[in-house]
């Protein structure tokens, strides 16, 4: 199921600290995944969905199953970035996101990618349908 006919983006700010960079002061490539994770987590939080509560009350956790990233221009120490996230696909047991990481100063896209996340049973770690509260909040009342 397509998430929406009109794309809705959620933006989350990230500042680059020295610990995020390599010896040249450039963001280490794997850290972009961390920033994207924060963007998705904060998106859920703004919808009133906390991952620890989903685990405790609904018995589900999430696991990334697919990532496709394109690195376009480096982010550097002390840059202020925006992690831009959009839900593009809502499946029975999965969510797919398009995410961009942009430099605030000039809107240059540093990294863009697609991330697919599976919903898992917290005890068995086997795929499980999205809880109704999550699906209804994300997909609307007709999901």
TrEMBL record:
The keyword Lipoprotein does not apply. InterPro entries: 4-hydroxybenzoyl-CoA_TE (IPR050563), HotDog_dom_sf (IPR029069), Tol-Pal_acyl-CoA_thioesterase (IPR014166), YbgC/YbaW (IPR006684). Keywords: Hydrolase. GO terms for molecular function: fatty acyl-CoA hydrolase activity. PANTHER family: 4-HYDROXYBENZOYL-COA THIOESTERASE FAMILY MEMBER (PTHR31793), ACYL-COA THIOESTER HYDROLASE YBGC (PTHR31793:SF37). Belongs to the 4-hydroxybenzoyl-CoA thioesterase family. This is Acyl-CoA thioester hydrolase.
């Amino acid at each position: 199921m397509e998430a929406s006919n009109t794309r809705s983006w959620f933006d989350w700010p990230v500042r680059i600290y020295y610990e995020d960079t390599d010896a040249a002061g450039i963001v280490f490539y794997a850290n972009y995944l961390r920033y994207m994770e924060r963007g998705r987590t904060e998106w859920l939080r703004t919808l009133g969905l906390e991952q620890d509560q989903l685990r405790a009350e609904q018995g589900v956790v999430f696991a990334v199953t697919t990532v496709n990233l394109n690195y376009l221009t480096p982010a550097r120490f002390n840059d202020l970035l925006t992690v831009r996230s959009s839900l593009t696909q809502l499946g029975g047991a999965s969510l797919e996101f398009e995410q961009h990481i942009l430099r605030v100063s000039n809107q240059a896209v540093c990294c863009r990618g697609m991330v697919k996340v599976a919903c898992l049973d917290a005890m068995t770690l086997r795929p499980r349908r999205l809880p109704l509260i999550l699906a209804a909040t994300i997909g609307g009342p007709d999901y």
